[in-house]
Write a structure and sequence with these properties.
- The complex is a heterodimer of chains A (176) and B (264).
- Chain A is mainly α.
- In chain A, helix 1 packs antiparallel against helix 2 and helix 4 runs antiparallel to helix 5.
- In chain A, 77% of the residues lie in helices and 0% in strands.
- Chain B has 264 residues and is an alpha+beta fold.
- Chain B contains three helices and twelve strands; from the N terminus they run αααββββββββββββ.
- In chain B, strands 1-2-5-4-3-12 form a six-stranded antiparallel beta barrel. In chain B, strands 6-7-8-11-10-9 form a six-stranded antiparallel barrel.
- Classes of the chains: A mainly alpha (176), B alpha+beta (264).
- At the A-B interface, helix 1, helix 3, helix 4, helix 5 and helix 6 of A face helix 1, helix 2 and strand 1 of B.
Chain lengths: 176, 264
């Protein structure tokens, strides 16, 4: 996917997240659409794109949030890089299994980093407090929703791939 | 391979340094013009999406509330009858009050100027912060009180941009409002609490606070005499210096679409 297309998608995801999903208010746990879209796009990108997209998504999230400006961006960049390293070193092939593992790790890691960094910036800036506890409570409810949505989205965008990439390669070679 | 790794490490650290610069430039308010440009261009799609969000929410809310409609009607009818009788008594008291103030040469009750605003977003991480579509160009300032259409205290402005502002609701754990029990005049602080919702804190054990009492903001706040919450339960623990008072906010914090910002 071209990077400008990904940025446009992220802008819409951020707007829908802040001004639609949070306002419809009929479910106690709704997924964080921006995070889901970002991780989904990032999973097939090189590191340079991951860094640009994570910074963009983080700044967009911070525009509509009470966290210290830049906190989400920093958290998303670190998570994006960790996921990239995992993918390149341990989970090459982008299988559904690998994607599930990295997604299961990405959401809790992101929220953990967000609260830690935000509390740290609050200490430095001595600004109005951001209630990490209440967020923590909400996140416990939301992480499963995030995880479920990203797996469904992955399934619909790429299809279920259980076999490792080598076997597909052999299959293609066999056809040739 | 090694060169590739060092390039990636450089990229990562450059991005982190860029974001850290953003964090510190923002804390020094240098980024405000850039943020305002973003908000300016995003406000039209955001208003549209928020309107669709509220309509969708209203529809689903209506579907989910159908089973409670009959019960609600009975409660509201009885409350309405009670309020009509109280209103009639209050009109007489108000008339007497105005008359006495004129005789004693006291100023009449203070009036506030209000700016109406629509909620156009909610914090993605913490639902106790909302975004409204009015900012400094409408004369808003940080720290101003925010009320709902019924005049109940909703929250306060914590960040004001050109075209929008962020509101911290009274239920957030970082919010605290100096308040009074309207009946017993017991003073305390209304604050958000993670486990209990909203609490009336720092009320000594010897004070009387009853269930269903109304808590109002007190004179020491810049916004005074605004109804905030109703007392839900009062617990006394002999070993503790203060009462444990749980409150229920009077403002509908989840479904409110329009709020008013108080300008002095």
């Amino acid at each position: 996917m071209k990077i400008y297309k990904a940025i446009i998608i992220l802008i819409f995801a951020a707007l829908i997240q802040a001004s639609f999903l949070r306002l419809i208010n009929f479910s106690p746990a709704l997924p964080n659409l921006l995070l889901v879209v970002l991780f989904l796009i990032n999973y097939s990108q090189p590191l340079a794109n991951i860094l640009i997209l994570s910074a963009t998504a983080g700044i967009l999230a911070d525009l509509f949030s009470a966290v210290n400006f830049g906190t989400s961006a920093l958290a998303m960049i670190i998570v994006g890089t960790v996921i990239y390293l995992l993918r390149e070193n341990f989970l090459k092939g982008k299988t559904f299994f690998g994607f599930s593992i990295t997604s299961a790790l990405a959401f809790p890691l992101f929220y953990l980093l967000l609260f830690t960094l935000n509390d740290y910036f609050n200490l430095i800036h001595d600004k109005f407090g951001f209630s990490a506890n209440i967020v923590g409570d909400r996140i416990i409810k939301e992480i499963p929703a995030d995880f479920a949505l990203i797996l469904i989205a992955y399934f619909f965008t790429t299809g279920y791939r259980s076999s490792p990439p080598q076997s597909r390669l052999y299959g293609r070679q066999a056809k040739m | 391979m090694r060169g590739n790794y060092s390039h990636q490490i450089k990229l990562f650290f450059l991005t982190v340094i860029f974001i850290l610069a953003v964090v510190f430039l923002n804390s020094a308010n240098y980024l405000q013009p850039i943020k305002n440009i973003f908000y300016y261009f995003l406000r039209y799609p955001q208003n549209l999406i928020a309107e669709i969000g509220f309509k969708t929410g209203r529809f689903f809310g209506f579907v989910l509330e159908i089973k409670n409609l009959h019960q609600d009607k009975i409660i509201l009818t009885s409350e309405n009858n009670l309020l009509i009788s109280q209103l009639s008594a209050l009109k007489e008291i108000n008339y007497e009050n105005e008359l006495l103030r004129k005789i004693l040469n006291l100023p009449l009750v203070r009036k506030y100027s209000l700016v109406d605003a629509e909620i156009i977003g909610r914090d993605p991480y913490n639902p106790d912060f909302v975004l409204i579509n009015r900012g400094s160009e409408s004369g808003l300032n940080s720290g101003a009180g925010v009320i709902d259409a019924s005049g109940f205290l909703f929250g306060e402005l914590v960040e004001v941009n050109n075209h929008n502002s962020k509101v911290r609701m009274i239920t957030d754990i970082s919010s605290s409002v100096t308040s009074l029990d309207q009946d017993s005049r017991a003073a305390g602080i209304v604050r958000g609490n993670l486990a209990e919702g909203l609490m009336f804190d720092l009320v000594p054990q010897d004070k009387t606070v009853s269930v269903n009492d109304i808590i109002i903001s007190s004179e020491s706040e810049s916004i005074s005499d605004l109804p905030i919450a109703r007392v839900v339960s009062v617990e006394r623990y002999p070993e503790k210096p203060f009462l444990k008072i749980k409150l229920s906010p009077l403002a509908d914090l989840k479904n409110t679409e329009k709020v008013f910002v108080i300008i002095k």
